[in-house]
Amino acid sequence: MAHSTTRAVELPALREIPVSELHSKQPPVLRIKTDEDVELWKRTRGYQDYGLFLRRLAESVVGYELPYSDPEPDKNVAAVIGMLDQLDRWIDEIPPLPTPQRFGNLAFRTWGKRIETECDDLLKSLLPNDLHPSIPCISPYLLTSFGSFVRMDYGTGHETSFALFLLCLALLRFITPEPRVERQVVLNLFVRYLRLCYRLQDVYKLEPAGSHGVWGLDDYFFLSYVFGSAQLRDQTGIPVNAILRPPLPPTNLYFVSIMRILEVKSGPFHEHSSQLYSIATGVQYWSKVHSGLFKMYEAEVLGKRVVVQHIPLGGLLEWDVPQSQPTFSAASAGPVTTTIPPMAPTAAPWATAAPYGASVPTSTPMPGIPAMPTVSFTTGLPHLPHRLGSHNGHGHGGHVGGPIAPARAPLGPTASSALRPGVGANHPKPSTMPPPPPPTSAVVAGRRDAWTEGSEEKGRSESDSS
């Protein structure tokens, strides 16, 4: 795949936070407890820093393939990779317990206890002496990057914690936010993190944290699809529906993630991964996939309290919410009611008719709280160029073919099937993943006869009663 040497879109520079300013900032703690807190978080400087950081990472890898090797590797990126290598070796030193457990081997808690004990020492070895005062602001994100040691699960919130850990290193300028280094962060460092998480999930049988089942994008990850679709965004040789023809070459993070699903799940792809199947069959251009995934990540991960309530905020990720927000008082609240207003599900971004690059609202105003402007990752950023076709809706970013039709409802088990029989080298996967066959004429005729018989029986009973 040919790659460009310059950014297609010029993004704002990521700000720098001197260590000397940390003493005046509130330490990171768990701050999100209600849906209102989620909306407040979206108005903070830390949230905007994170959105810009992800945009810069994605833009840096457009047109680049895996495996990637920079002729001048960044020493600090290599140092973080070395730390992940050390955590990987701990898995060898802490093998899983032989007791029969379907999900969550108790040895994972031992591995987690070790990283909790040695986290500060790991960061002291990683960072130069002048950045050591920042360790209390960084360690909470590293500790929550590999799963819950209590519930023994892993999900997109833990993946987000690791991305926030990398953001902290960039705000301190331990990692330089420039395209060449950011490219190494995604194609070398983040790939190493994925491999470590794959091994933790396989060895310790970690359960998906808050999985949406077949209606979610992936049981464990999301950012790998965002970065992978960025790699494929501007090329035209690989269609979006190429994922339906495995095996896929590991040349981008999107394909790597799809092959990971096929390793741990059995059954037809359209049943256990309906969202990915809908994207493959209903979206024509990778640019639309990429922009839609960004919006979906903001709505379904960063916009969900059950996901982000476990992420500590403060310190480098400032919790600078306006102090003029009204506070809820039990004395002025009036009678308590148990009626809960219905919550509308968040539609997939590519299934809407919103213009390319437009913000998708993620929530409604809370009772008793005035409506607040929701800040999107795309706010204030230039639109990506339409490199294919025209700008009249039929080109690179146009809505081709209308909205995506809903995927077929699941017919079988939907949980991750890493432990199910029939998965592995001795049971090869089919080379294609066709959609389910339509009902046969015999089945249709049988249904029609049954309906007719039921109608006749109902008529007889009515005539008898009269």
From TrEMBL:
Species per Swiss-Prot/TrEMBL record: Trametes coccinea (strain BRFM310)
A GO biological-process term: mitotic spindle organization
GO cellular component terms, A-Z: cytoplasm; nucleus; protein phosphatase type 2A complex
Subcellular location: Cytoplasm
Cross-referenced InterPro entries: Phstyr_phstse_ac, PTPA_C_lid, PTPA_sf
Pfam assignment, any one: PTPA
Cited function: PPIases accelerate the folding of proteins. It catalyzes the cis-trans isomerization of proline imidic peptide bonds in oligopeptides.
Protein name: Serine/threonine-protein phosphatase 2A activator
Biased composition (Basic and acidic residues): 446-466
E.C. designation(s): 5.2.1.8
An example molecular function term from Gene Ontology annotations: peptidyl-prolyl cis-trans isomerase activity
Catalyzed reaction equations: [protein]-peptidylproline (omega=180) = [protein]-peptidylproline (omega=0)
Top-level taxonomic group: Eukaryota
Lineage: Eukaryota, Fungi, Dikarya, Basidiomycota, Agaricomycotina
Record keywords: Cytoplasm, Isomerase, Rotamase
Family, similarity comment: Belongs to the PTPA-type PPIase family.
Chief location bin: cytoplasm
Comp. bias (Pro residues): 431-440
